Amino acid sequence: MFGKSIRLFSLFGFDVKIDISWLILAFLITWSLAQGLFPYYFKGLTSTTYWWMGIFGALGLFFSIIFHELSHSLVARNFGLPIKGITLFIFGGVAHMEEEPSSAKAEFLMAIAGPASSVVLGIIFFILRSIGTIGGWPLAVNGVIGYLAIINWILAGFNLLPAFPLDGGRVLRSILWKWKQNISWATRVSSRVGTVFGFLLIAMGVIQFFSGNLIGGIWWFMIGLFLQNAARMSYQQLVTRRALEGETVRSLMITDPVTVPPTATIKELVEDYVYKHHYKMFPIVEGEILAGCITTRQLRQVPKAEWSTKTVGEVANACSTDNTIDPATDVIKVLSQMNRTGNSRLMVVEGNKLAGIIALKDIMNFLSIKLDLDQYEK
């Protein structure tokens, strides 16, 4: 879903990041406010004033989305759900949950917290707008505050659509989950509803496009595609979690991995190990002690003229929380670590010794077999 993101700040222990795609949205919002909405409703102001109104309107929306997602995150934390952070991207924002909610009640309260916070924030802005009108605040200031009141209510209303994984879709899933006591079934049903809503938004976009509203049509079409994809991926993620539930590193790791001595040269590593075994990472073992690891990414940083003289030990990576894992760790957490670090192979460590290797390829093969067997059993 996301590309490159930039960390902005930390709030209540949550990292707030901005996806590069949000810069596109920020510009489009500022431009549409400054050149469209504000000049239409508040006539007679200067072009510079409209642009300042557009900028502050976009910043207010930025704040509103963070407030919305922060509400989800605080409720999730209250139920013991780990949240990695909040990221704003081109279609809004998302709080990154590492686990599914533990109960239908937790799901419902976490989901409803976002729209409820947006409604409250909209009321606060509406009160400020009323105070500003009575107090004779400048038209530009009242205009931006009034816009923020309305946009927060729109944000709440859109998110309450029963289309998973929108907040309303999560509320629907929590109700179905409570009813049937089956989160997989509830997710499947709510994801299908989300897919249907995605189709409706795409159809609306096509109608808008051919009716002359080109930009609006494109946006509805893109949001519909996003919603369809998000609904499908959310269900697939749950299926993956359920299939791997209870599996630990010890049950899937390779117990006799290929290792490299620290005295081997880079040339020997390439010719005798990389070309022979086709791995991108090799543990470095001296005697029985794990000394670190070396990856093919590191090899590209060593000039070929030095391959015959430079040893593996000289350019090795030390053991760290990025490239090692405990054998008792849940496989779901392994996937999360691999996704975070970009490493497809991790060293399984007990004390200072290498117990094995766990590879993304082996996890995916196990998952494929498990899903096939589960489907056959049904």
UniProtKB/TrEMBL annotation:
<dbReference type="InterPro" id="IPR016483">
    <property type="entry name" value="UCP006404_Pept_M50_CBS"/>
</dbReference>
<keyword id="KW-0129">CBS domain</keyword>
<dbReference type="Pfam" id="PF00571">
    <property type="entry name" value="CBS"/>
</dbReference>
<dbReference type="InterPro" id="IPR000644">
    <property type="entry name" value="CBS_dom"/>
</dbReference>
<feature type="active site">
    <location>
        <position position="69"/>
    </location>
</feature>
<dbReference type="GO" id="GO:0005886">
    <property type="term" value="C:plasma membrane"/>
</dbReference>
<dbReference type="GO" id="GO:0046872">
    <property type="term" value="F:metal ion binding"/>
</dbReference>
<feature type="domain" description="CBS">
    <location>
        <begin position="318"/>
        <end position="373"/>
    </location>
</feature>
<keyword id="KW-0472">Membrane</keyword>
<keyword id="KW-0812">Transmembrane</keyword>
<feature type="domain" description="CBS">
    <location>
        <begin position="253"/>
        <end position="309"/>
    </location>
</feature>
<dbReference type="InterPro" id="IPR046342">
    <property type="entry name" value="CBS_dom_sf"/>
</dbReference>
<dbReference type="InterPro" id="IPR008915">
    <property type="entry name" value="Peptidase_M50"/>
</dbReference>
<keyword id="KW-1003">Cell membrane</keyword>
<feature type="transmembrane region" description="Helical">
    <location>
        <begin position="108"/>
        <end position="132"/>
    </location>
</feature>
<keyword id="KW-1133">Transmembrane helix</keyword>
<feature type="transmembrane region" description="Helical">
    <location>
        <begin position="49"/>
        <end position="67"/>
    </location>
</feature>
<feature type="binding site">
    <location>
        <position position="72"/>
    </location>
    <ligand>
        <name>Zn(2+)</name>
    </ligand>
</feature>
<feature type="transmembrane region" description="Helical">
    <location>
        <begin position="144"/>
        <end position="168"/>
    </location>
</feature>
<keyword id="KW-0862">Zinc</keyword>
<dbReference type="GO" id="GO:0006508">
    <property type="term" value="P:proteolysis"/>
</dbReference>
<keyword id="KW-0378">Hydrolase</keyword>
<dbReference type="Pfam" id="PF02163">
    <property type="entry name" value="Peptidase_M50"/>
</dbReference>
<feature type="transmembrane region" description="Helical">
    <location>
        <begin position="20"/>
        <end position="42"/>
    </location>
</feature>
<keyword id="KW-0677">Repeat</keyword>
<dbReference type="GO" id="GO:0008237">
    <property type="term" value="F:metallopeptidase activity"/>
</dbReference>
<keyword id="KW-0645">Protease</keyword>
<keyword id="KW-0479">Metal-binding</keyword>
<feature type="binding site">
    <location>
        <position position="167"/>
    </location>
    <ligand>
        <name>Zn(2+)</name>
    </ligand>
</feature>
<comment type="similarity">
    <text>Belongs to the peptidase M50B family.</text>
</comment>
<keyword id="KW-0482">Metalloprotease</keyword>
<protein>
    <recommendedName>
        <fullName>Zinc metalloprotease</fullName>
    </recommendedName>
</protein>
<feature type="transmembrane region" description="Helical">
    <location>
        <begin position="79"/>
        <end position="96"/>
    </location>
</feature>
<feature type="binding site">
    <location>
        <position position="68"/>
    </location>
    <ligand>
        <name>Zn(2+)</name>
    </ligand>
</feature>
